[in-house]
Protein 1
Amino acid sequence: MSMKSYRQELHFRTDKRRDFINITPLVRNVLHESGIKDGLCLVNSMHITSSVFINDDEKGLHSDFETWLEKLAPEKPYSQYRHNGFEDNADAHLKRQIMGREVVIAITNGELDFGTWEQIFYGEFDGMRDKRVLVKIIGE
Amino acid sequence: MSMKSYRQELHFRTDKRRDFINITPLVRNVLHESGIKDGLCLVNSMHITSSVFINDDEKGLHSDFETWLEKLAPEKPYSQYRHNGFEDNADAHLKRQIMGREVVIAITNGELDFGTWEQIFYGEFDGMRDKRVLVKIIGE
Amino acid sequence: MSMKSYRQELHFRTDKRRDFINITPLVRNVLHESGIKDGLCLVNSMHITSSVFINDDEKGLHSDFETWLEKLAPEKPYSQYRHNGFEDNADAHLKRQIMGREVVIAITNGELDFGTWEQIFYGEFDGMRDKRVLVKIIGE
């Protein structure tokens, strides 16, 4: 088969500093638009204070993620981080390393090749501003 | 060259809640079956309470991983996590974020293009049930 | 289009045990040499005590990463880790899991398809020896 490629950006602006958004339906729409039936799909944050990751769509778990990430990389006091001279988002850069920048997803028979509970999330750690997620698909 | 694709699932059921399994020989077998000589190989957990990662095949280190992950995201008390209303595996969802969902491996000359010590592991954090790992290879 | 592939290794030897090196210009050079205009680029450490990751090129933040990783996975006392029988680098294996082994980058119009602030780093956690990073590009 001969290689095809498709690219699209998703746009987000959260009301809160931190939030988790299920972007699975958006990524699936991009895949179907692409017409690609078999290959690999990269989904990555185009920013360095947010994440794309795969986990469970369950509100209690998202609350646990929030509490846990605040324990591992607390937002405050801002003065604890050297990055926070003109910024206040050092914690967001750290949180994003734990949750990851990107996921790579197999495409099979024109669908996201997922286990039962896999859902794709945009994880925002420095929100209330315009952010972008890149979807890039290569295959046939 | 023209693009080829190959897909196979690996199946696991651990005896313990948490375990690390070296799956490098299994992934290598899938690669050789595929006949693909050059490209990219995605290996990902199809579950959200387990990981695929690359590190050292050394028993002391695996014991260190277990101790460390329990310190960063303790299993108990179960009641510390809001996800644990009907579940008891919130810690497994957190541990999986640290260890990662997937690896992408270069394929060169029909082999996994690895450094000397790189080995692929399935990291189980909520075991004693049937689990699947996806191997998807694209290339030529 | 028909698939092309390109492979190159980057070589590093840091003066310190831990260091962060911006490798974006090196990866961009490899991409331009490849002639590939559209596809995916994998950049991974070939070692298990170092990372490749994408974040901000800001010295204060790198200092925060150092402090934070030492808190989450301290180097000393060496005796706290079972891996450290003949080694002293167990902490480096743990730090690498938080920061990640690899990144996958979209290639569009012959360039790294990046957001404004995305920069690629080699993160060394057990330095003062020869290390390698693999760049593998597939596409058209």
Protein 2
Amino acid sequence: MAKYVVSRVKTGIPGFDDLIEGGFPQGTTVLVTGPTGTGKTTFAVQFVYKGAELYDEPGVIVTLEERAQDLRREMLSFGWDLKKYEEQGKIAIIDGVSSVVGLPSEERFALEEGLNVEGFLRYVYRVVKSINAKRLVIDSIPSIAIRLKEEQNIREVLLRLNTILLEMGITSILTTESEDPKGGKISKYGVEEFVARGVILLDLVEKDVELKRYLLIRKMRETKHSMKKYPFEITENGIVVYPSGEIY
Amino acid sequence: MAKYVVSRVKTGIPGFDDLIEGGFPQGTTVLVTGPTGTGKTTFAVQFVYKGAELYDEPGVIVTLEERAQDLRREMLSFGWDLKKYEEQGKIAIIDGVSSVVGLPSEERFALEEGLNVEGFLRYVYRVVKSINAKRLVIDSIPSIAIRLKEEQNIREVLLRLNTILLEMGITSILTTESEDPKGGKISKYGVEEFVARGVILLDLVEKDVELKRYLLIRKMRETKHSMKKYPFEITENGIVVYPSGEIY
Amino acid sequence: MAKYVVSRVKTGIPGFDDLIEGGFPQGTTVLVTGPTGTGKTTFAVQFVYKGAELYDEPGVIVTLEERAQDLRREMLSFGWDLKKYEEQGKIAIIDGVSSVVGLPSEERFALEEGLNVEGFLRYVYRVVKSINAKRLVIDSIPSIAIRLKEEQNIREVLLRLNTILLEMGITSILTTESEDPKGGKISKYGVEEFVARGVILLDLVEKDVELKRYLLIRKMRETKHSMKKYPFEITENGIVVYPSGEIY
Amino acid sequence: MAKYVVSRVKTGIPGFDDLIEGGFPQGTTVLVTGPTGTGKTTFAVQFVYKGAELYDEPGVIVTLEERAQDLRREMLSFGWDLKKYEEQGKIAIIDGVSSVVGLPSEERFALEEGLNVEGFLRYVYRVVKSINAKRLVIDSIPSIAIRLKEEQNIREVLLRLNTILLEMGITSILTTESEDPKGGKISKYGVEEFVARGVILLDLVEKDVELKRYLLIRKMRETKHSMKKYPFEITENGIVVYPSGEIY
Amino acid sequence: MAKYVVSRVKTGIPGFDDLIEGGFPQGTTVLVTGPTGTGKTTFAVQFVYKGAELYDEPGVIVTLEERAQDLRREMLSFGWDLKKYEEQGKIAIIDGVSSVVGLPSEERFALEEGLNVEGFLRYVYRVVKSINAKRLVIDSIPSIAIRLKEEQNIREVLLRLNTILLEMGITSILTTESEDPKGGKISKYGVEEFVARGVILLDLVEKDVELKRYLLIRKMRETKHSMKKYPFEITENGIVVYPSGEIY
Amino acid sequence: MAKYVVSRVKTGIPGFDDLIEGGFPQGTTVLVTGPTGTGKTTFAVQFVYKGAELYDEPGVIVTLEERAQDLRREMLSFGWDLKKYEEQGKIAIIDGVSSVVGLPSEERFALEEGLNVEGFLRYVYRVVKSINAKRLVIDSIPSIAIRLKEEQNIREVLLRLNTILLEMGITSILTTESEDPKGGKISKYGVEEFVARGVILLDLVEKDVELKRYLLIRKMRETKHSMKKYPFEITENGIVVYPSGEIY
């Protein structure tokens, strides 16, 4: 039998792709988790932005923690002009905040209030198709969980979300929160990591009264990956991983 | 593309602004968290007081933990005469305690009892506009949570609060409580830090049977910031941070 | 502007006042917390007894953990004759136990059963006025919480209690319990310390298979205070703090 | 004023009375707590048995964990013949188990099933009076809590129990359970220690893969006591404390 | 008075009886607890099997975790032929699993489904009498708890079970589970150890990346016992304890 | 009596069978547990795949975490062509995901939605019989628990599942999740390990900022097994255990 070869999607995060055989397996779903202030949103947006900028792959960002306009402004500090690629039809941002907080939205793509999970997936699917997106970011899982009006089981919702993303063939990043990864709890609900096919932890470690950032690939199916803790920084151009650096 | 420049708001806390590229990003919302007795209220009031005194920026303080009159008296011990700037229309204090405890209030700005979150935000908005405030303090989030009569989700309320403050374009400090920051839990409800755009931890560390104060910037969007633990003191003139000091 | 001067109330606890600029700020409310057997009741009663004996300031003790007569007997072991000052109108003890346990009380001041927080505060206010008290002790907060028949929020009750005591202008000590202060939880409900304006922790530390007592001032508004752990003892004359002692 | 002298009740436990100024304060209530197998029942029964044998003081044992007949048999292994003193009217055992488990009891004193706390206290009071008891043991508090059919608050029940025992003037031992005293939780419900006037912890510490017994007096009102951890053993004659021994 | 002598029941576990004055006190109830895979079932069955084989004492095994036939097969790996002694009327196995899982049982003794605790005890009593059993094993307490259809308090059920076993005069082993004995929690519900008269912990300790088995007698009434941690092994002939071995 | 010999089922995992006397006891049920990303699914599928490839034993895989087609694709990265053996009738995959997420399935074997535990077992039984399977994998227990529509007790369901698998005589692997095995909690619900007859833990340990994989056999009835922690790797050919390697 000829050796099976997995197609790889370059992340656009300097230093990172070398750790995972060249990129994410195409069509996979990856969980990016960590405590507050570790760069999860930046990691996720960089994946979509660089996809458009460097690899000509359209991408969709579902922003559930802040409005599209606030996200755009923030990303400018990395020199990332999301608007430019939105106008070129290479990036689409779905605003999931405005309607919830009762503010009018002038966004092209915006979620209605009181959406259930099916409606949410259908809307995302439609936007993905409209720009023929290859990359998707959903920021974040806890924000989805909050919006679910029915009494749905978070594990079942994630299983459904994950499977439908696989069916769509899109390479996706979902973000979630972890208060205390060192204590063994690497996600908000304790189930996200078991449903996702890849898990990347962004965390902090204290060294000489200073917190240092590190990244750990806890899981990546179809991929031979290192389980080392790699230092990374959030520079003025976004996240840079140092595969040969030492965190201690 | 020309480099995007973030406007900075000087905090008026000696030694602090150097740690965050000159000040808070204008229009951002910052969470100040920590255990009891670490100086959260002092930090927040100093931000508004120095705004009026040094930078001619009007500010609003929403006090939900103690009456306006008690806050004024306390701040006198730092030599801060809030009354003076209130009379000049540079500071406004919204008393959120008197009505709740059933005492009459002679305050100009006071919250009614049984206010819901919309009413609360509307009232704050009105006071902010009336003095054209550029700075806002809400002390504290747990006190808002307690006042919510309806069964509202604290995460959703914070998301709404945060977004509306961003929409108002005002630079804000929200305070919350953290019983045990070293155990990874840096806020009361475990969600405040994920919704806020900046997180500053005020904490204590024991050294030779004495507790020492330190400050840690856990998160500050649009800002390149240090993640070091800096010593600070509560002097007779308020908080002073020592960027070159060592806490151990 | 002339420097604002805070009036100080001497506690009558040898060695303690030097740690807080001469005494409690007049009119403040202080929380005394700690595990069982650390001397919280002794600390609180000493404050009232010495007020009457040394400073000619009348004081009220609300005893919710044991009957007035049991408290009187116990304090005799320190040589403190509460009865004497009660007869002189310098001390009043409000018995909050007899009615609850269904025993008749011959006390002059006794709480009725089934009192709500308003009734409780009104009764305390009346007794305070009747002897023109300057000092007040409520022993303890968990006992108040238990007595609340309605479904009241403990944080709101404490906020009300604290504000009304401030309004009365009386200097007060409230006691509460802490099972495990070293684990970061310094009070029974996790909210008492945030509402009070001063927090004193009485705790134990093990040294050579012996538990040693120490005291830590965690918070004291309007006061520059040390954050060191000071050794103290419960002598046959009451509590004595050793400001220059070492606990390790 | 003449120095107040506290009457002392000798416990009959060799080596122990020296640690507490000669014995328990007369009329006090002491909590004996600890993990399983540390000797709580033995400590409590020894107090009553030696009272009858050495000091001619009648005593009552309320046994809620095992039947009177099982307790008698067990205590024979220490050479203690409870039956002998029961026949002399110096000891009375109230069987609180037989009725609960649905077995007939031939005991002279036995609790009925479904007793509320008032009925329980009334019955105990009657038996105490019938032999003019000076000492009382209730083994154990969790067993009382289980029997309470109404939704009573354990803290309020203990406050009532404690106060009525004080009113009766009887010197009492109550036992309770502590899973993990080293973790700061020294009782089953976390409230027993705050209501009782004395607290004695019986615990174990590991030394060279062997568990060693030690005793710690955590609290004893009206008494100047050591806070050292003292080794003790359960010998064939009952508990012996070694005031000059070392546990490590 | 002549010294009271406790009759001893030899366990048939090599090396163990020497640690407890020759055997269990006759008629007592012993709890065997520990994490998974520590040999609780083996310990309990060995007690009954060796009773029949070496001491001619009939015994009953109530198996609630696996069917009688599965237990028999497993025990063959230790060379124990339970069937042989069942045919001789020296061992009876009560199958408590088949009916619950809806499989037909050809067992002579089998529990019906939906049994309450009284029915359970009555059935066990009948089987014990039918072979005049001196030894009894119930494996396990959590399985009883699960089967209780009514809302019964586990502590009360255990008190009843324990007392009735004492009344029957039979020497019994009950097994229970302990996830984390080192953390102080030595049983599933935190109450089993307080109700039982003996407690034996089977646990594991890590030494050089290998887990080693040890046994600790935490409690044994009427018995002077060591509190040392003894190594043991599960050999091809069952459990062997090494009283002079070292676990570290 | 002739020595009882247990039949062994070779796992097909290099280096593993030597640790357990040559293989799993035939007909037993083994729990494979561990945190995310430790290789539980790979371990389980390898057991069935190698059974078909090397030992000519048919096997069934129940996949409840991902669709059959996703599982097939993933396993190709180890060079395992499940499809080939499915066509030969040596492997059957039951898709338990498609119906739940509302996607159509073209699988030959697929679970309907809303299945109760009896229906689930009946379906599995039918597929096992249809290919005369000797090996079975159910991936995973938490996914079963989620699907149970009725309020069934997880312990009772596992007891039933385990007993029926034993009755079927099939050698089975069940997977479950463990967030923090080092803290003593080696399974999701804290009961799986007590019901299963074998427990294998796949876990990670940090060494020089790198996580290393190890395997520990916590329990294996009818088997003399080591309790050492063995290093293993997930190679491009699947899992390989190193019986003579060192993890530290």
